[in-house]
Amino acid sequence: MRAFDDADVLRVERRLLSAIPLVAHMSLQGITLQKEGLSLSAPLAPNVNDKGTGFGGALSAIATLSGWSLTSIYAESVKANGFDVVVHTSELTYLAPVKADFCALCYYPEEQLLDVFLHKLTERGKASLPLRAEIRSNGEVAVMLSGRFVAFARAEQV
């Protein structure tokens, strides 16, 4: 479900690509919106382990960044540059080795969960959002993430 516009996506994409140094090292591509959710793509080469497959830490980071990005976009729709987002909890299940370029797909939340998130964020300045994400490579789901992301009002800059 979408509750945001292109300007919200662009602000988050700029922050993702410029403010998180790890993203550049991973050669992470920009945000792509798909029918079922938000995706981030990356090449295997800079994210490889000693076995020639996707490094678990890199796969975890990119799956987490997909949830961070989607939560940040929803927060931007409430107030531009008004909220910080962090991962609160996450659980990962590794199903198969990643042997080629890959993408993380964070699914849009159920409408009711999103409505509660946006309402609490607007009214209280803080809210959490449960999300699911997958790492896919060669048409196969290799990693599943279940997480909760928290948005909270950004402290005023002095």
UniProtKB/TrEMBL annotation:
Coiled-coil ranges from the UniProt annotation: none
Pfam families: YiiD_C
InterPro entries reported in the protein's UniProt record: HotDog_dom_sf, YiiD_C
NCBIfam families the UniProt entry points to: yiiD_Cterm (TIGR02447)
Domain Thioesterase putative per the UniProt entry, residue ranges: 12-152
SUPFAM superfamilies in UniProt: Thioesterase/thiol ester dehydrase-isomerase
Lineage: Bacteria, Pseudomonadati, Pseudomonadota, Gammaproteobacteria, Oceanospirillales
Species whose genome carries this gene: Pokkaliibacter plantistimulans
Protein name listed in UniProt: Thioesterase putative domain-containing protein
